[in-house]
Design brief:
The protein has 22 helices and 23 strands. The chain has 589 residues and is α/β, with parallel strands linked by helices. The protein folds into three domains: 127 residues, ATPase, nucleotide binding domain (Nucleotidyltransferase, domain 5); 203 residues, Nucleotidyltransferase, domain 5 (2-Layer Sandwich), CATH 3.30.420; 207 residues, Alpha-Beta Complex (DHBP synthase), CATH 3.90.870.20. Strands 15-23-22-16-17-21-18-20-19 form a nine-stranded mixed sheet, with helices on both faces. The chain has a five-stranded mixed sheet with strand order 3-2-1-4-5. About 2% of the residues have low confidence.
Length: 589
């Protein structure tokens, strides 16, 4: 059985392909088109997946789409009637349903087929059901509670349920416009971060402030935790509820979101920060207070879900699941004993969820507990990379090809010498985190490294932190946890006595967004960190995504261009090394 899963006509559009339950490939359209969070029909992602699988669109048995235009249709109609005329409501629904319902013919046309040639059955799976499936079916749990929490998808912002073996049962949900995700986005915009997906900046900024009682009291007039375990929003704080969709798609496919917060929020919290305005202590304290209320609201939901389900394990996905600060506190602050968050908890992962739901829940096939969705994208051979480098202008650089062992020696020595390294290996990661295959690496012991990468390579806000990638067996030596965190999805406290050893990955509040690296999951990255460990006694490398205000690099050319226009010192493309440093020439000679 061949299943093509899609997240289409939505931010972070993506595609994946499964053959008899085995994930063959998955990629986000943004990686290929080079437009962050690209929204639309992911034609290039589909072509990539089909090529990796060795099949044509004509061979596909099922096309699953992570959107159900008929989900909560009565609520949608009532909401539309409340704010619009009947005629405009019908037109809106017809347009929205038609867009997604035509996906089979749209794909056929884009790939050069007649729609009648395509045998695949198309299934539309509700957005949050897809989020739930993407986390539960990838988890190590035989049964668990499942939560999906985000801005909004299919008129829903929150849903929970239970996963048992190969089945998912949804229990309750909260509908638009009441949304913890929208609450967080309101303050993201209010704090001057205006791009689609900028919420993580507020999370990073929150560590520089202190939650203030007065601010928290004000925020609780916006976010209201109900006695029944759920929540609602005071809609006076939202701008233009019912007067149109807040989400838009620009001409180049980039999603945007119009202003969510109302003038009433400005009355309560003061003037909004301009994007180029200096960040004051008030802004930092507000960010900390917003983060605190987000965490407390989620813990409130967890208490309710735990009581309703009786499950001790939790699977989590949706946009709010990208809040790694929150994730690191869930087990300590709620009754749940274990938490699983997949590497693609964002909307891009719903393509996987739709396919997994079809295969396990609908078709009733048993689960494969060896399934992993981390490394599913492009890969290039040394021969392909050599051909690219020969066609490039390398006159101002040094170039050499290493054997595996000598490559690791050279790279670790270079990092110790203070070099910033672009590291391009194996298959690219699926999801927003670089997990050791499309990464920028540096020495965590160097206190100057963080500012250098932020200012001269990533060219982003100075307050943004970097992740420590650590050998799994050394976690408890450096962190106040012994948990495996392979997908960089949780933040934990670094032991106080260790923070001074790794200042480049210790955030201002002494935390780090942890990535544990195991030999079996990523052997080359593990060996590099281990080589560095042998020389320095520190089993950690600074790891950040290989990009510069763009999607993570996907091809050798994109990696080289990023290296060329920034101040990275060394570029490693599989076994090929391109360097600005004369040290490479000296070693090779």
């Amino acid at each position: 059985m061949i299943i093509l899963g899609l997240n289409a006509y939505h931010g972070d559009a993506s595609a994946c392909i499964f053959i008899n339950g085995e994930l063959i490939a998955a990629i986000e359209e943004e990686r290929i088109r080079r437009v962050k969070h690209w929204a639309g029909l992911p034609v290039l992602a589909v072509l990539f997946c089909l090529k990796e699988a060795g099949f044509s669109l004509l061979d596909i048995d099922h096309i699953t789409v992570s959107k159900d235009p008929f989900s909560k249709l009565p609520q949608k109609i009532i909401h539309a009637l409340r704010y619009n005329s009947l005629l405009s409501s019908v037109r809106i629904r017809k347009s929205a349903i038609g867009n997604i319902k035509n996906i089979k013919s749209d794909l056929a046309k884009a790939l050069g087929f007649d729609v009648g040639e395509i045998k695949a059955k198309v299934s539309f799976v509700e957005h949050h059901t897809c989020h739930m499936a993407s986390s539960y079916f990838d988890s190590p749990f035989t049964n668990s509670a499942i939560i999906s929490l985000d801005g909004m998808g299919d008129f829903t912002s929150f849903k929970y349920g239970v996963g048992t073996k190969n089945k998912i049962v949804s229990l309750e949900s909260v509908s638009y416009p009441h949304s913890i995700g929208y609450y967080y986005t309101c303050f993201t915009q209010f704090l001057g971060f205006l791009n689609y997906g900028d919420e993580y900046k507020v999370m990073g900024l929150s560590s520089f402030g202190t939650p203030q009682k007065e601010l928290i009291q004000k925020i609780y007039d916006f976010v209201r935790l109900k006695n029944n375990g759920l929540f609602s929003l005071n809609l006076k704080y939202l701008n233009g509820v019912g007067k149109g969709d807040w989400n838009h798609i620009s001409a180049n496919g980039m999603p945007t979101i119009s202003r969510l917060y109302s003038d009433y929020l400005i009355q309560k919290f003061g003037p909004a920060r301009k994007s180029d305005e200096e960040l004051t202590q008030y802004h930092k304290d507000l960010a900390a207070s917003v983060q605190k209320v987000c965490e407390d609201a989620f813990f409130h939901l967890c208490e309710y879900v735990y009581k309703k389900t009786g499950e001790e394990y939790l699977c989590l996905s949706g946009g709010v699941a990208q809040n790694s600060v929150l994730n690191g506190k869930i087990v300590a602050k709620t009754p749940f004993k274990k938490l699983y968050v997949p590497p693609s908890a964002h909307d891009g992962g719903t393509s996987l969820g739709s396919a997994l739901y079809e295969y396990h829940h609908v078709q009733n096939f048993p689960r494969n507990f060896l399934f992993c969705q981390a490394y599913t994208g492009n890969k290039y051979t040394n021969e392909e990379i050599e051909l690219f480098l020969k066609s490039s202008n390398l006159t101002k650089y040094y170039h050499h090809k290493f054997e595996d062992a000598s490559l690791l020696e050279f790279v670790s020595n270079s990092i110790i010498a203070g070099c910033i390294v672009g590291w391009f290996q194996g298959r690219s990661e699926f999801g927003p985190r670089a997990l050791g295959n499309r990464s920028i690496l540096a020495d965590p012991r160097n206190p100057e490294t963080k500012d250098k990468i932020n200012l001269k390579i990533k060219r982003r806000e100075i307050f943004r932190p970097f992740a420590p990638s650590i050998l799994n067996e050394c976690v408890s030596d450096y962190f106040e946890t012994n948990e495996k965190v392979p997908y960089m999805e949780k933040v934990f406290k670094i032991r106080k006595e260790m923070q001074y050893l790794i200042p480049a990955v210790s955030h201002v509040n002494g935390t780090g967004r942890l990535q544990t690296v195991e030999r079996d999951n990523n052997p080359k990255f593990y060996k590099l960190i281990n080589n560095f460990y042998g020389k320095t006694g520190v089993p950690i490398l600074l790891n950040t995504s290989f990009n510069e205000n763009e999607p993570i690099v996907n091809t050798p050319k994109e990696a080289f261009d990023c290296f060329d226009r920034t101040e990275m010192d060394i570029l490693v493309l599989e076994n090929h090394v391109v360097s600005r440093q004369a040290i490479l020439e000296e070693i090779c000679n």
